[in-house]
Write a structure and sequence with these properties.
The protein has 206 residues and is mainly beta. It has three helices and ten strands. A four-stranded mixed β-sheet has the order 3-10-7-8, with no helix packed on it.
């Protein structure tokens, strides 16, 4: 349904005589981030070793950015994401290309994975060079209707409430149907290295 993006939001408190409320501006662009433990990758030689002296290549994902084409007209919201991989190798005895797998996944409502793609970036080391970098990118689209709140839900969230009234003390998001609607329309686009179970364990315990 979608794969990547960025987000923007704005809130303005209304304290006029007619009441108080918050006017919120949402976009269908998902929030972009790197899941904990997946922004770094370490390979070993030999592969079965976890000794510091056997470390072969260390890579880190950084500078994750996104641009979202949210013009409000198209049914699809197109998002472009870029990132940089910084890598270091232990030996610099010759030119070498290292392919590093990465994933892009979209999570709806904080826990439901609705799309995933696995790709590769190739880091090139020149002879005698121990450090190198490469830029990666991805493009994806989202169905605007899936990430847009209904007019009724938006009205209930942003309606003005007067001080002293019972409704002023009630958070509209405490209503299960409103909270669930917001969750269903909330997406995260997460990018990181596609790690093995052993690599994830290494990142968590190093």
């Amino acid at each position: 349904m979608l794969v990547l993006g960025g987000c923007a939001s704005r809130g303005e408190l209304d304290i006029s005589e007619s009441g108080a409320g918050v006017t919120a501006v949402r976009t269908p662009c998902p929030t972009v981030g790197v899941p904990a433990g997946t922004g770094d990758l370490t390979t070993f030689d030999p592969a079965t070793s976890r000794d510091a002296t056997a470390i072969d290549v260390v890579a880190a994902m950084t500078d994750v950015r996104s641009t979202c084409n949210n013009d409000g007209e198209s049914t699809q919201v197109v998002t472009n994401v870029t990132f940089t991989v910084l890598a270091r190798r232990a030996r610099a005895d010759g030119a070498r290309d290292v392919a590093l797998p990465y994933f892009v996944t979209v999570v709806q409502g904080g826990n439901a994975v609705v799309a995933k793609h696995v790709g590769r970036v190739v880091v090139h080391f020149d002879a005698g060079q121990t450090r190198a970098s490469v830029n990666g990118s991805a493009t994806a689209s989202v169905d605007r209707s899936a990430a847009t709140l209904s007019d009724e839900v938006k009205r209930r969230i942003t309606e003005k409430r007067k001080a002293g009234k019972e409704s002023a003390a009630v958070d509209p998001l405490s209503a299960p149907d409103v909270r669930n609607a917001v969750l269903r329309a909330t997406f995260e686009a997460l990018v990181g290295f596609q790690l093995t179970d052993d690599q994830l364990k290494y990142n968590a315990t190093r």
